[in-house]
Amino acid sequence: MKFWEKAWKPVKYAGWWLLHEWFYDLAWFVDRIFAPVLAKPEFYGMENIPRKGAVLFTANHLSQWDIFFMHYLLPRAGYWMTKREHFKVFFFGGWARLFGAFPVSRGAYNREALQFSVEVLKRGDVLIIFPEGHRAPEYRMMPGHSGAALIAVKADALIVPVGFSGTEKISRKKEYGPDGKKIKPRVFVRVGQPYRLPRNNESGHHHDLEELNDLMMSKIAELLPPEYQGYYAPSELADRKLLREQQQVEKLAQRSDRKAARLANKEAQEVIKVPAMRQETVEEKTQEVAKE
Predict the structure, then answer these.
(1) How many CB atoms are located within 10 Å of the residue 140 CB?
(2) pLDDT digit string (tens) for 243-265?
(3) pLDDT of 42 above 80
(4) Closest CA to 39 of 174, 135, 192, 207
(5) 29/32 Cα distance (integer angstroms)
(6) d(CA 69, CA 188)
(7) What is the pLDDT of residues 86-126, one digit of tens each?
(8) What is the DSSP string of 166-185?
(9) Of 26, 77, 79, 141, which is most buried by a Cβ count within 10 Å?
(10) pLDDT surpassing 90 at residue 24
(11) Which helix (H) or strand (E) holds 102?
(12) Helix residue ranges, H only, the chain
């Protein structure tokens, strides 16, 4: 690598970092001007947002306006996991990168995106993920992708759940009054208490990724009205927990049966082996007597 290429790399990174910080500050200012114009926002739990250190924000996804109000919350510039298709749109890709967005392919294993996410958290930065992957078509929580839980475990990240309700009424589900005018919707943004995903469950066994994903998404669901909870409503979570426990019992029973079968097979082989040894001993003695 030539000298000028080596020198340009840190300069390029420094320039991008300055633009990233400047764009965040500008957007943060704009958010506070336009938020009351778009809706009647109400924010709860703002005291739960850490002002420093690595933080993973997770939230449900109802509308493109979730990003707008999430940005309103952020204490500092962060990084966003964004679907790869957005970066193919003219101008939008570069603009999104300045805001800290990085591409991820939906429905596929993204090694680079996972590694980058873990690195972001390990160096003490902010990472924002909508685990559902796309906006909920029926405005209720859908199954979340397990990548967010995997990142949280690998980075041992502090997680802050955020619940959005009402953002879908800004553009996707508009409401109108008797006079035909659009009603300015009430938007609720609730921030939960920070937590970390536990390594082991109540019985001392390691959590599987599906169980950790349910735990992470349930923290978001707790911040939402019942009609928004969908796949992570308490009854749905209880049913899946019961099913997992039944599967675990069946798995342990199968493992015990296989172990018992191996022991029985081993004992049977030893029983067959003993008469064979006795027969060999008799033959050896017969041969010795014949020689004498």
Answers:
(1) 18
(2) 887 887 888 788 887 887 787 77
(3) yes
(4) 174
(5) 5
(6) 10
(7) 777 766 667 777 778 887 876 666 788 889 999 999 999 99
(8) STHHHHTS--B-TTSPBPPP
(9) 141
(10) no
(11) strand 101-104
(12) 3-38, 65-73, 92-98, 111-122, 147-155, 168-171, 209-221, 226-229, 234-291
State the DSSP H helix or E strand holding residue 127, giving kind and residue range, or none if neither.
strand 126-129
d(CA 67, CA 79): 12
Token reading at 287: 């041969």
Closest CA to 52 of 20, 16, 76: 76
The answer to whether residues 116 and 100 touch, using CB atoms and an 8 Å cutoff, is no
Q: Are 112 and 103 in contact (CB under 8 A)?
A: no
Scan for tokens 């859908």, then name that residue. Answer: 142
Least confident of 3-7, 159-163, 214-218: 3-7
Task: Tell me the two tokens of residue 79.
Answer: 């990084």
Partner residues linked to 183 by β-bridges? none
Query: Tokens for 239?
Result: 């049913």
Q: Please identify which residue in the block is written with the tokens 């082989």.
A: 269
> Can you give the pTM of this predicted structure?
0.79
Residue 35 in tokens = 């938020």
Cα separation of 175 and 152, whole Å?
38
Checking if the pLDDT of 8 tops 70, the result is no
Tell me how far apart the alpha carbons of residues 13 and 9 are, in angstroms, rounded to a whole number: 6
